[in-house]
Amino acid sequence: MKDAGYKNQLMVMQASGGVMTVDYIEGSPIRVLASGPAGGVVGSAHVGAAKGYPDILCVDMGGTSYDISVVSNGAAPAEAGWNMHHRYLIGVPMVKVETLGAGAAPSATSIMARWKLDRHRPVRIRARSAMGAAAPSRR
């Protein structure tokens, strides 16, 4: 990145919703566990508050999971101390994100690119399993 002209220090998202330096990760790599969903909640909280919606429900549907988080008063719900991540007890602060079920991979965008669709007929995306590919269906 420096070769491309980036002059700032590279920062990486933490599970708590904050950021840390790359050097800090070397001493505490567990802090990046679930940092992707945490970043989504922090970003959603910021955009929601900026648009006048400080209380929102954040949804992240990926290829294998459907995650939600509730933002109240414009703040991502971070919990200090010991947190459960799936079935593991982790001793780092984390943004509270709950997994409700399976996701739907591949995304609707990639399905639309592969299938010629009539824009006047609705398309539903259904996952065959948590690890299976989704298939379009029409009614």
Protein architecture, described:
The structure is a single chain. The chain has 139 residues and is of the alpha+beta class. It has 2 domains: 103 residues, no CATH class; 36 residues, no CATH class. 21% of the residues lie in helices and 29% in strands. The protein contains 3 helices and 11 strands, in the order ββααβββββββαββ. A 3-stranded antiparallel β-sheet has the order 3-4-9, covered by helices on one side. Strands 1-2 form a two-stranded antiparallel ribbon. 19% of the residues are buried.
What's the short version?
This protein is an alpha+beta fold and 139 residues long. 21% of the residues lie in helices and 29% in strands.
What key phrases describe this protein's structure?
single chain, 139 residues, alpha+beta, 2 domains, 3 helices, 11 strands, disordered C terminus
Q: Give the strand line-up of the largest sheet.
A: 3-4-9
Structural class of the secondary elements?
A: alpha+beta
Proportion of β residues?
A: 25-35%
The H/E string reads: EEHHEEEEEEEHEE
**What is the alpha-carbon Rg in Å?**
18 Å
* Integer average pLDDT: 77
What distance separates the N and C termini?
A: 49 Å
Number of DSSP E strands: 11
Number of helical segments with 4 or more residues: 3
Largest sheet: 3 strands, antiparallel
Q: Estimate percent helicity.
A: 10-25%
Global geometry: globular
* Count of spatially separate domains: 2
What ranges have pLDDT less than 50 throughout 5 or more consecutive residues?
A: 109-117, 127-132, 134-139
Write the layout of secondary structure elements.
Blueprint: E1 11-13, E2 19-21, H1 22-27, H2 35-50, E3 56-61, E4 66-71, E5 78-79, E6 83-85, E7 88-90, E8 94-95, E9 98-101, H3 108-114, E10 124-127, E11 134-137
Antiparallel strand pairs: 1-2, 3-4, 4-9, 5-8, 6-7, 10-11
